[in-house]
Amino acid sequence: MKQVLIITNSKDLTADYIIDKYSDRVDFFRLNTDRFSDYDITITKEGAFIEYKDQTSGVYTNLCHALYFRKITLPPLDEYDKKYWNLMQREIITVIDGLAEITGNIALTRPSILRRADNKIVQLKLAKELGFNIPDSLISNSNQHASKFCSMNKRSIVKPLSVGRIIEDHKVTYIQTNEVNNNREILGLELSPSYFQSYQEKDFEVRLTIVNGNFFGVKIVSTNKIDWRKQDAKISYSQIDVPEDVANKCIKMMNKLNINFAAFDFIVKDGKYYFLELNANGQWLWLEEKLNLGISAAIVNYLIGEDFNVK
Length: 311
Known about the structure:
The mean pLDDT is 91. This protein has eight helices and 18 strands. Helices cover 28% and strands 31% of the residues. The strands form five sheets. It has a five-stranded antiparallel β-sheet, with helices on both faces. Strands 2-1-6-7 form a four-stranded parallel β-sheet, with helices on one face. It is an alpha+beta fold.
């Protein structure tokens, strides 16, 4: 049975799902980064060994066939002096990143590759080069330039450049896509650059998940016309085949980014696809569960090189 190291956090339901579904065929070892102190990690010139402190199980990274790098979070450091927090966090991240870079011959996906692939500036340049339809876009830390851009569009939206995660009192919330209020002055971008786009009317949206050449297209119809992920939105999902030219551009973009997994987001109006962004480590479990997709099978198939009936 081939070994796969999953680097994630203890609350990752997607990792739970994959382990539960495929543990009879794959030897998974899970490193929960938010419980970093639960493990003994030793790294020498011979390689790395990760073991639970109770010694119930462990794994040599040089014996792992593959790596699945999911969603990491850092452990709380409340018991330590705050002046050391940044140092400790950077040291932990360095170990996690290093393990993810050296484990397995196959990976979804190394942190160094993810950082470039998920960068919206890189994506905007590549999408333009590949000929995707793209809404007018501006990434800036200039209040003046952002105001001018928004004034030139009847409607504009603004969204974070990264995950938009806010942590307060150990509670996590997310800033999502919002419509710009042209009656209010844009302020505070100097140290908080943002991503502005002209509002694009839509008939529906498409989430296209691609795993090693397997396509899983989902049509999303939402009552919220700004961001379908809003909590108050009523949403319907159905499978869809994207046009061949769009699919080909997606594959070319993935090849340029050196990734084998991506979740693409599109707006569709009158049959025309508008590229919004891709997430090189995007969530997919809820779509598999709603539509009985074979995304998990495609992922495990890629990681260990066997066929688990990809639909």
